[in-house]
Design a protein that fits this description.
There is one protein chain. The chain has 6 helices and 21 strands. It is α+β, with helices and mostly antiparallel strands. It has 2 domains: 151 residues, no CATH class; 118 residues, Glucose Permease (Domain IIA) (Distorted Sandwich). The strands form 5 sheets. Strands 10, 13, 14, 15, 16, 17, 18, 19, 20 and 21 form a 10-stranded antiparallel β-sheet that branches. A 4-stranded mixed β-sheet has the order 1-8-9-7. A 3-stranded mixed β-sheet has the order 2-3-6. The relative contact order is 0.12.
Amino acid sequence: MFSSFICALNQYPLIEKLNSSDLLFKQLTEDISSFYQNSEQRKELRPLQIYRVLLEKDSTIFALAAHFNLPYETITTLNRISRPQIIKEGSEILIPNRPGIFVPLIPVSDIEYMIRSWRSMDSAQELSIRGGKGGDFYFLSGEKFHQLERTFFLGIMFRFPLPTGIITSPFGERINPITGKPHFHNGIDIAAPLGTEILASRAGIILNTGYNEVYGNFITIKHEANYETVYCHLNKIFVELNQEVQSGMIIGTVGTTGMSTGPHLHFEILGRGHAKDPILMIAGKNDEK
């Protein structure tokens, strides 16, 4: 299925200088310019070609995108980069001669799962890149990130669920303050005064509300791209099942219901059913596991 475009990384033409003195760089930039002109005039497009670029100095994804007149999502999806980062001097990255989205057949990071989950591949070109972070891809010519994908990639997908509070227990292994035994903490605990307003961390639909002996009064919100947020130990709940909520909407108040040593919010983020560290998801350091 992918035999029409199979190539090892070292077989792509190598651009060593990012200026017009390098004939391959000149060809690449001409191809990209031609794509925009021909797309606008609905003319035939040049075949997809991928180049290797050797960086002479540290750069950012956004600087590279501007330099080649390509959307940053084209470069990040082809190189399987899941968040903004510095690309070090001497690194080789892949640059195509046209804008678009590269969608892996087998996603491995959160952003790749998101891209793959809601896009039709009926009109996509199939290609295979061998070596490095390559793999089998669909190429959607001319497409860009959806707003949610852009928000997630830039690290602003979730907001802090309280107007103010102190994180008293992080995500990960800890000693349970109630039982005194080691266990894995699936979220974070945020201490705040009784009655502090709790905010929806992102827009979504109320998936569940109720009472649990451990979590007390709780709310679960379902979000796009198979994410959920969970809010526990509430004093009051202000939302109902299947209700739509917006990011920042008040959904309840901090309490001490269930197994709790004092007023606080236990907050979880689940991605495809797996617990994620909320601090990383809020701070924009989305984990790739």
